[in-house]
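Course assignment 3, question 2. Fill in each field.
Student: A.L.
Task: Predict the tertiary structure for the chain below.
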Amino acid sequence: MYRPCDIDKVAACGETWPVDPEMREALDRMGANLRGEIQTLGTELRGEIHTLGTELRGGIRAVDAGLRGAINELAVDLRGEIRSSATETRAYVDERIQASSAEMRRHFDVVGESLRSDIRAIAEGMVASLEQTDRRVDEEARRRDGLEGRVVRLEVRVTDLENGRKPRRPRRRQ
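Answer field:
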C-alpha cells in the first residue's frame, strides 16, 4: 500500500485543498469523456444484450419446438409399446386363466369322483344297516307276538283258575 501523505491527513480532518483551475478543467473534461464513454458503452451493451436476448429467445423456441417434437414422438412410441405390452399381458393372462381353469376342472373331477365313491360307501353302509335293522325289528316282532300269545294263554289260565274251571288243553302244534 502507499505510504501516508499530506492529502490523507487533510482528508482525515474533513478538509479539502483547493485544486488548480487547469487541473479542475482537465478533470472535468476527463469526467465528461468518461461519462460519454460509459453512456456509449451502456447503449452498446444494451443493444448487444437485447440482440443476445432475441437470439436466445429464438434458440430457446427452436429447442422447445424440437423437444416438443421429440416428446411427442416418444409419447407415440410409448403408447404403441404400452398397447403391445397390454395385448401380450392379456394373452398371457387369458392363457394362464384357461390353464388354471382346466387344472381346477381336473381337480374337481378327482374330488367329485372321490366324493361319489364315499357317498356310495355310505349308501351301501346305510342299506346294510337298514337291512340289519329290519331283520332285528322282524325278529323282535316275532318274539313279541310269541310273548303276547303266551301272556294271553296265561291270562286265560288265570281267569279259568279264578273261576274254578279246569284249564283247557293246549293245542298241538303241527
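Instructor remarks: Residues 6-163 form one domain. The two ends are 163 Å apart (CA to CA).
Grade: pending
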